[in-house]
Amino acid sequence: MHYSLDLNWDLFLNQVDLIHDDKPFFIPNFITSPEKLLSWDDVDNFFNFTEGPINIINTSTQHSENFDEIPYYYNKVLPNRNKEYQAIKNNSTFNGACYNNYNGYAKYLSHEIDKNLGVASDIQFLASLSSNTVSFHPHIDIDPIIVIQTYGKIEWTVYENKVTHLFPRGFINSVMLSKDFQYLGKSQTFSLTPGDLLYMPSRTPHQVKVNSTRLTLSIQCMPQMSNPKVDKSYYPIKSLIKNEIKN
Ligand SMILES: [Fe+2]
Description:
247 residues; alpha+beta; Jelly Rolls; three-stranded antiparallel β-sheet; 6 helices; 13 strands; 21% helix; binds fe (ii) ion
């Protein structure tokens, strides 16, 4: 199986002057077949047939929770899917981390991002069952984020003022939660539908409004120097069978 996507990196790189004026930008229809990257079948498969890490967004605190707690062999700990499922049924948004390891197109996309932008990207998915679903409280992420919508609609609000890199992310986000967002400067709201891309610079405060059942990819772009190189090659094991020696 060959996985590839038609990606226009010139279009991406010509949106803003990233060297002199790093700011958010939006590209409608950047991905032509977004369902290849992430569909509800992918979410079901990830949840049921892998040990992929899931984080649940607690509906009251709007912080993420993790239920990796089932002891297994070799000191391994597996996710408690039953607890996760109950929380999802109760309208929590949830995310699946390291998603580039579970979908061939997502792996290709992550590899392309690394190659064209010089980062070490990691893709997670965000899933919400309905417009009543609670998502994250307003917060920052340390690294730049590329967002790609693959199903349904969201509204993404980005604030102008950036946050220092001197304090830990957890501390910044807990202080930010108690402050009025008017101190964060002008805001811009982007409406995303399937195939749309949003780029957000590092340490940019943002919040998301879920408008419908939705699936979104959130791609964290970490510096290559501070992260171990993750192998994103596709290894076609099935095709090796052709070389089997017949007796
Ligand atoms: Fe975020």
